């Protein structure tokens, strides 16, 4: 359903190499796990990826941009198959999200960029554009399917719909990240079922508000 999105850049020059991009992003995540944010450098990533440092700078202006894109491609792996009900769809993507957060490269990279973004407004905007906004596709798909099944009413107020989409994303992402990375509690099937039931019930209440 999803495709990996290449790091975006306005720079021009020789054609991009997908293989080089993949190697660079994998090297970035490996360096983050081993070195941490403060010790990671563009030079170290270039060496691990087997490319010249100038190759990195043609694609990414700085370490912040590089790390965000290295995280973003991981979240592009998330999928939302049609399992026949809104609750089943939510449970599937939440379990998939939790499994992704268990991977050392995801956990380390995500925590690093979020921590750094608290004092870097441009980095926050890049996280929003490259990760948050891209993954809202899952919310849009899930809500549309639920409407087609008759589980949710059709859209009436576009502004209210946008606000609801934001709320759904915030609730799911916030709850899973907090439980997995802050509380360090298991995101198991029982917890996911309760979260999904709470969310589905809440969506019905929100729809009733108009």
**Could you state the order of secondary-structure elements as H and E?**
HHHHHHHHH
Q: What is the mean pLDDT?
A: 87
- What is the general shape? elongated
N-end to C-end Cα span: 31 Å
Please explain how this structure is put together.
The chain is an all-alpha fold. It contains 9 helices and no strands. The longest helix has 29 residues, at 121-149. 24% of the residues are buried.
Summed up:
With 210 residues, the protein is mainly alpha-helical.
Q: How are the secondary structure elements laid out?
A:
Layout: H1 18-35, H2 42-49, H3 53-59, H4 63-75, H5 86-102, H6 104-117, H7 121-149, H8 158-182, H9 189-209
Name the features.
72% helix; mainly alpha; single chain
């Amino acid at each position: 359903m999803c495709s990996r999105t290449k790091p975006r850049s306005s720079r021009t020059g020789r054609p991009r190499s997908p293989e080089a991009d993949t190697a660079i992003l994998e090297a970035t995540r490996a360096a983050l796990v081993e070195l941490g944010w403060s010790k990671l450098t563009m030079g170290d990533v270039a060496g691990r990826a087997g490319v010249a440092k100038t190759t990195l700078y043609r694609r990414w202006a700085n370490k912040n941009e590089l790390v965000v894109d290295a995280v973003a491609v991981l979240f592009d792996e998330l999928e939302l198959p049609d399992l026949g009900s809104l609750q089943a769809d939510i449970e599937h993507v939440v379990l998939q999200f939790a499994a992704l957060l268990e991977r050392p490269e995801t956990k380390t990279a995500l925590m690093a960029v979020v921590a750094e973004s608290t004092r870097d407004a441009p980095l926050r905007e890049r996280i929003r554009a490259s990760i948050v906004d891209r993954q809202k596709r899952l919310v849009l798909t899930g809500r549309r399917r639920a409407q087609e099944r008759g589980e949710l009413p059709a859209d009436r107020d576009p502004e209210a719909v946008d606000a609801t989409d934001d709320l759904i994303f915030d609730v799911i992402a916030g709850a899973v990240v907090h439980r997995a990375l802050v509380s360090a509690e298991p995101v198991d099937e029982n917890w996911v079922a309760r979260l999904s039931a709470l969310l589905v019930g809440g969506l019905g209440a929100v729809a009733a508000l108009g």
